[in-house]
Amino acid sequence: MRPEVRNERLSDEEFFRIRTEEVLPQWETGRALRDLDECIAAARELSRGKNQALKLKAAKEAGTHVLIPQFGRALTEYVIDGLQFVEREADLAPNGSWLIYSDSYTRKNDYRSAAMGIERSRKEGMSMLNGWPVVNFGVEEARRIMRASEVSLHFNSTDEDGRLASEIVLAAGWSGCSVRSLQEVIAHCKSIPLAEEIRINQYEARLAAIYTENGVPICPWNACNLSGYDSAGYHSFVCVSEALLAAAQGVKYQFIEHGLGMNLIQDIAMIRVTERLCEEYCARFGFGDVEFFTGAFPFLGAWPPGEDEANAMIAWNAAVPILGGVPGVVLKCQDEARATPTKEGMARSVKLARHMLRLMGTQRLPENAKLAQEEAMIELEVRALMEKCLEAAGGDMAIGLCKGVEVGWIDTMLTPWKHNHGKVRVVRDAENAVRYLDAGNIPLPREVLEYHREKVAERERRDGRKVTFDTVVADLQFASVIR
């Protein structure tokens, strides 16, 4: 039986009940957060001059870019050392921001194992966790990191329940958590029902909105990274649907963050359609005052182990948002194929991306027929799914998302999540754009299906052989195989 969830703003009574009974008791560090007014006052002071929402807003208005490297280590001092190294060596401060991620234990709310990782890291004298265990360290340690950095900080609160982690970082003056539900289950989850994930993220969204309403602008990330092997239309649909869920909780700023497929035309079309439809659908439901800032996340599929090939990936994944006029440029580094980013690798990536900005200047992809056609096809796909879900649920996007997944209208190819039907198959076309080989039960308009079929046929003509399931499998190594 599908649990009921509705796209309605949490009442103050319900929010504080959840906060007191479900969120703060998750770990002992929650006790320091009991006075929310005190948390907001501290955040207001700590984030002064280092606010990601305001930085992204300024970049969008000026037509410039914010470089966003990623980092995370087991101990606070390691995190501070890494941030300060990159900020010093790569001159990040003028137009940069940070994405800080937690370790895998924290992402699964296994704080006891994270504590063991902390102790082992201290004993070994090196990071034995693949991120910073924010919940174990708590708000004062998060404030230490905030004070040590010259730029704004965003925390990647991924996996099933990031509510306590988000409480900690927002109280420390960090500028963002995440608002994601369908993105989250597809990318990182196994069993949790979508309705429960939506409920959890309604709390995170409402928390961000409360800070914003009290003078601390919070810009949660609305991401569509997924698994890295998904259609552009599916990426876009994830963000547009989740924009409605976050807006209903009072979120006024959203960072629409796209995992790139690495075809220039398709990625820029996806980015443009998504922001346009996020604004349209939010306005349609009475949320016309939400501001959207767009960002690009490097390809989420397998990366090449070679340093030269990795540098090519970094450069291309930066070039796409630059040519698309996208303000947010999230960076990976050369370490990506083998390990989590090192401070040296991240500094090199920032330097590379900064030089790309210098070389490319204000160059943008000009309007052209191929871009217009790609935008039209993506928009048709997204509208078809949005209207199907809204119609089936009487206008409630939360219910519509759950129903769409249940019956298979909403589907993708690769995910650990057991509730996904998995009837979709995607391949690369002759220009390495992602196309449907089999759309499963997704209610795609006829012209969209025909468009994808013709694009696949172009590859078949180029290669002189039929595209099959073997092609689907081979394409999974599209970017990582060194020939």
Q: What this model shows, in words?
A:
- The strands form 3 sheets. The protein has a 5-stranded parallel β-sheet with strand order 1-8-7-6-5.
- Helix 4 (76-89) runs parallel beside helix 14, helix 11 packs across helix 15 (369-392) and helix 15 packs across helix 16 (397-407).
- The model has no long low-confidence stretch (mean pLDDT 95).
- The relative contact order is 0.12.
- By secondary structure, it is α/β, with parallel strands linked by helices.
- Helix content is 52%, strand content 9%.
- Strand 7 (291-297), helix 13 and strand 8 (328-330) form a beta-alpha-beta unit.
- It is built from 18 helices and 10 strands.
- It is globular and about 60 Å long.
How are the SSEs placed, and which strands pair?
Blueprint: H1 12-23, H2 36-46, H3 52-62, E1 66-68, E2 70-71, H4 76-89, E3 97-101, H5 104-107, H6 111-124, H7 134-148, E4 152-156, H8 163-171, H9 182-188, H10 194-213, E5 221-224, H11 232-248, E6 253-259, H12 264-284, E7 291-297, H13 307-323, E8 328-330, H14 343-360, H15 369-392, H16 397-407, E9 425-428, E10 434-438, H17 446-463, H18 469-475
Helix pairs in contact: 4-7, 4-14, 7-8, 8-10, 11-12, 11-15, 12-15, 13-14, 15-16
- Overall shape: it is globular
Binned strand content: 5-15%
Q: Please give the order of strands in the largest beta sheet.
A: 1-8-7-6-5
The rounded distance between the terminal residues' Cα atoms is 50 Å
Fraction in helix: 40-55%
Residue stretches low in confidence (pLDDT < 50, at least 5 long) are none
Query: How many extended strands?
Result: 10
Overall pLDDT confidence: 95
Quaternary state of the chains: single chain
Rg, rounded, reads 21 Å
SSE class? alpha/beta
Main beta sheet: strand number and arrangement?
5 strands, parallel
